[in-house]
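Support request from a user on the community tier.

User writes: "When I paste my structure tokens into the form, the page sometimes reloads and wipes my input. The last time it worked, I copied everything first. Here is what I submitted, just in case something in the input itself triggers the reload:"
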């Protein structure tokens, strides 16, 4: 990897990191290290979403073939402004933190050391497989080269970029959003070379950021060891599922996890709640800009919030600030996505051919329900391509350690559960109404949809199960359900 490659990849991450340093302070309870690390894994998602929107708007106003000077100038100005703003902010706040001298190191014990060593071994194996497989199939599988990299090629070509949305290549889904193609094209334009290394490196950044974000998010609420175990499981899932196909399902899984984590953090934090929600809205918008499934995620957030307010008997006016902050972050990327859909993207191919008669027939077809449930059961029970699949392992592990979490997390956990549940239900109904052959549609896509949901599910899972080293670090006010002890008492 040469210096230009590294700089082109690093600038969006630097922009995202500086934004996070400005918006979110580090934790004042001694967890400063994990705060910086958490931001590092969240930064790529923010940076890549932002620069892709800038590139798209530049292409609309001018043309992509004139993008290199404009992009470099705009990105340089953003970095300079953010750096100076952070410097003066840091200088002003330096020494004012009463907890700045009370930074604690993470608790280290034998289990933590063993888990860390296992994590390192899994990462090394992951990187070795990444190097081997990525260069054996440098263009990735079908979706990678026939959709994302094909569209990136049109964008990078300059004046011919609009041909990438032609109905003449309808088989390549020209209605799909552009976050990934724009980031690939951006690096190709800056480098002056359509290197196959670009999508490979971009895919690696999203994979490692997803695992790191999962591990650090769990670590913040459930401790160091729980975070490391979550990271190991997350890495195995990424490693053994879609692997190195360069599909967009890993990036959108990352955005789902990031938005879910930020909404959860916003619900749990008494300070900076609005900033977490603004960032959550922005990353939800980024999921819309990554794949069409982002709309299902946005609907799941809306439905789960409305249901939670209904159960809690909250009036809409009481949640107005929550919706307002989320919309502030969501709106910029939402508007870019909607503009693309209206001005450039042809109609999608999933629900456009349906009418009321067809919908009624499919909704009343019992066999369609049974087919979807059968595929879903098989996918969950075999997910991960391991000798022992992931889900049974998680069930067994959960039974062994039991369920235990601080009661202050209850509302956030319920909200997160509803979001994941509604997303799965929406995917179910998309399959139910699909105009494509149902068996073909399920067999070619269900693993990818499970992969999109799985990191968020793992975040939820490791929030609710007990830590391996007991409840020493947990709040005195704790919900607990120990399956082993229940079994012993009943016997």
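"...and here is what came back when it finally went through:"
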């Amino acid at each position: 990897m040469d210096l230009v490659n590294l700089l082109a990849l690093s600038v969006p991450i630097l922009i995202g990191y500086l934004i996070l340093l400005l918006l979110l302070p580090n934790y004042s309870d001694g967890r400063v290290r994990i705060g910086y690390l958490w931001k590092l894994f969240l930064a790529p998602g923010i940076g890549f979403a932002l620069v892709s929107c800038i590139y798209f708007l530049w292409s609309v106003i001018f043309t992509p073939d004139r993008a290199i000077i404009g992009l470099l100038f705009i990105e340089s100005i953003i970095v300079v402004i953010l750096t100076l703003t952070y410097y003066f902010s840091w200088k002003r706040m330096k020494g004012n933190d009463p907890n700045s001298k009370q930074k604690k190191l993470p608790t280290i014990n034998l289990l933590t050391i063993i888990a860390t060593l296992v994590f390192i071994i899994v990462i090394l194996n992951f990187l070795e497989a990444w190097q081997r497989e990525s260069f054996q199939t440098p263009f990735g599988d079908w979706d990678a080269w026939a959709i994302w990299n094909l569209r990136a090629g049109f964008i990078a070509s300059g004046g011919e970029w609009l041909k990438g949305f032609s109905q003449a290549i309808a088989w390549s889904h020209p209605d799909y959003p552009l976050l990934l193609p724009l980031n690939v094209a951006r690096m190709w334009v800056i480098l002056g070379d359509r290197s196959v290394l670009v999508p490979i490196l971009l895919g690696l950044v999203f994979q490692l950021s997803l695992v790191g974000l999962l591990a650090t998010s769990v670590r913040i609420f459930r401790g160091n060891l729980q975070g490391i175990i979550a990271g190991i499981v997350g890495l195995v899932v990424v490693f053994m599922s879609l692997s190195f196909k360069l599909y967009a399902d890993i990036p959108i899984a990352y955005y789902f996890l990031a938005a879910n984590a930020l909404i959860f953090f916003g619900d749990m934090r008494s300070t900076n709640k609005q900033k977490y929600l603004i960032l959550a809205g922005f990353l939800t918008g980024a999921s819309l800009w990554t794949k069409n499934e982002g709309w299902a995620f946005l609907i799941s957030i809306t439905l789960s919030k409305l249901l939670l307010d209904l159960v809690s008997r909250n009036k809409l006016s009481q949640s107005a600030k929550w919706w307002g902050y989320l919309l502030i972050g969501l709106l910029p990327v939402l508007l870019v996505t909607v503009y693309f859909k209206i001005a450039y993207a042809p109609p999608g191919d999933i629900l456009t051919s349906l009418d009321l008669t067809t919908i009624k027939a499919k909704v009343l077809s019992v066999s369609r329900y049974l087919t979807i449930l059968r595929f879903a059961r098989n996918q969950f029970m075999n997910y991960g391509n391991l000798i022992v699949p992931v889900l049974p392992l998680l069930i067994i592990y959960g039974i062994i350690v039991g369920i235990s979490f601080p009661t202050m997390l209850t509302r956030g956990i319920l909200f997160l559960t509803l979001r994941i549940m509604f997303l799965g239900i929406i995917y179910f109904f998309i399959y139910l109404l699909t105009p494509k052959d149902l068996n073909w549609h399920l067999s070619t896509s269900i693993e990818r949809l499970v992969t999109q949901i799985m990191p968020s599910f793992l975040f939820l899972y490791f929030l609710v199960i007990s830590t391996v080293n007991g409840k020493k670090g947990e709040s005195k006010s704790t919900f607990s359900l120990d399956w082993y002890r229940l079994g012993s008492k009943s016997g």
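Agent notes: The reload is a front-end session timeout and is unrelated to the input. Residues 79 and 465 are 41 Å apart (CA to CA). The chain has one domain: 3-95+121-485. Escalated to web team.
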